[in-house]
Amino acid sequence: xxxxxxxxxxxxxxxxxxxxxxxxxxxxxxxxxxxxxxxxxxxxxxxxxxxxxxxxxxxxxxxxxxxxxxxxxxxxxxxxxxxxxxxxxxxxxxxxxxxxxxxxxxxxxxxxxxxxxxxxxxxxxxxxxxxxxxxxxxxxxxxxxxxxxxxxxxxxxxxxxxxxxxxxxxxxxxxxxxxxxxxxxxxxxxxxxxxxxxxxxxxxxxxxxxxxxxxxxxxxxxxxxxxxxxxxxxxxxxxxxxxxxxxxxxxxxxxxxxxxxxxxxxxxxxxxxxxxxxxxxxxxxxxxxxxxxxxxxxxxxxxxxxxxxxxxxxxxxxxxxxxxxxxxxxxxxxxxxxxxxxxxxxxxxxxxxxxxxxxxxxxxxxxxxxxxxxxxxxxxxxxxxxxxxxxxxxxxxxxxxxxxxxxxxxxxxxxxxxxxxxxxxxxxxxxxxxxxxxxxxxxx
Length: 444
Ligand SMILES: NC(=O)c1ccc[n+]([C@@H]2O[C@H](COP(=O)([O-])OP(=O)(O)OC[C@H]3O[C@@H](n4cnc5c(N)ncnc54)[C@H](O)[C@@H]3O)[C@@H](O)[C@H]2O)c1
Prior knowledge:
- The chain is α/β, with parallel strands linked by helices.
- It has two domains: 2-202, 3-Layer(aba) Sandwich (Rossmann fold), CATH 3.40.50; 230-435, 3-Layer(aba) Sandwich (Rossmann fold).
- It is built from 17 helices and 14 strands.
- It has helices at residues 10-21, 33-40, 51-60, 70-76, 97-109, 126-140, 162-167, 179-189, 204-235, 239-247, 268-281, 287-310, 338-348, 361-364, 379-383, 403-409, 424-429, and strands spanning 2-6, 25-29, 64-67, 79-82, 114-118, 148-152, 172-175, 199-202, 319-323, 352-356, 373-375, 388-391, 414-417, 433-435.
- It has a six-stranded parallel beta sheet with strand order 3-2-1-4-5-6, with helices on both faces. A six-stranded parallel beta sheet has the order 11-10-9-12-13-14. It has a two-stranded parallel ribbon with strand order 7-8.
- Helix 17 links the parallel strand 13 and strand 14 (433-435).
- Helix 11 (268-281) crosses helix 12.
- The structure holds nicotinamide-adenine-dinucleotide (NAD).
- Nicotinamide-adenine-dinucleotide binds next to helix 1 and helix 5.
- The site of nicotinamide-adenine-dinucleotide (NAD) has 26 residues, from helix 1 and helix 5.
């Protein structure tokens, strides 16, 4: 089936590539000409494991192509996917200017029946706005009778595992208003659910809300564990033990139950905020979401304040080794990354930071104070001469360093583990002053 994928970011590029992998004929469109030129030459603009190989293979086999020419891509396609950004507006609500801009463009360009699929994360009611925008443009062209359908098809992929998530999804959610479009969507996704996982067909509004509900639920689990971790520190309990104790309950489960530095990235912070705005619009309290967001902000500060307190608020002349910059492992995405707040706070207190991240460095550079941060190529270079080391992002490369070698490189064996990656008793036995999250009295 012929697909036009508008927006070639984390979601559009992965979705388009995976549709091509399943044999569909995909044209990816972006307004960013440099990105498109790069993609034509096989330069992948983001780091996502496995993506480069898949893009190159499908491009070589002519199932995926890249263009800035929306007109041609729309003309040739039955499906037009909208996968552009929905960043937070000033009041936290989702800024729909890019989504509606694409809708208007499609209305200006289409000449036959289209299924317009909204893959961007958008508030309840956006499909109606997309329909209205398309209809308005068609009316302007005296093509008011031209048929189209607007479908909601939120995306649940995780950066870092995006290919597997897209090719073998737990479920696919589709919001449709008529059976004809439902059949087309089933055909489009048929190859992705051979494993028996469901395609949930539902009304459009429920589908739009499902995406926010999913992200808000996951963010809630994280904030819940973070809030508990602070209590663990106070009472001398170990959050890791509590996690195992509750996570093995089949009603609760282990995923997204880790205490750490709070959630970041391009989705949870903005989607929690956008759902809060929707609640407010309908005069609902949104109490849980308010608390989830407040705890998330507090958790970063809690960690930062502990470091500062340990040094009497003064890090002048101190060198800090930073392990990990991207908001989570296996991505180069720096949006809402805790590393930015942490590094800013430490440098404000007088520190210089020497940072290593396997993939996040290039995106991090413009976001960090140039004079006080140096970027290096490996974990040991970040530790050389350090007065303290801060593990910010739990890339697997940081899990089992050579502790003996590290001990010989640092100036002081002080380690701040923002992700509870190490065994406290072992680090302490090796002479490290070891700090972590919610494991105040941990002995294991
Ligand atoms: N990143 C994720 O993990 C993830 C997961 C699920 C859902 N989402 C949602 O998917 C949407 C896209 O997110 P993303 O992370 O891929 O964004 P992104 O910022 O990485 O990519 C958006 C792309 O759209 C392009 N664009 C903007 N306006 C355009 C236009 N008029 N025509 C063509 N291209 C245009 C931009 O140049 C950019 O390349 C958002 O709503 C996001 O919330 C993201």
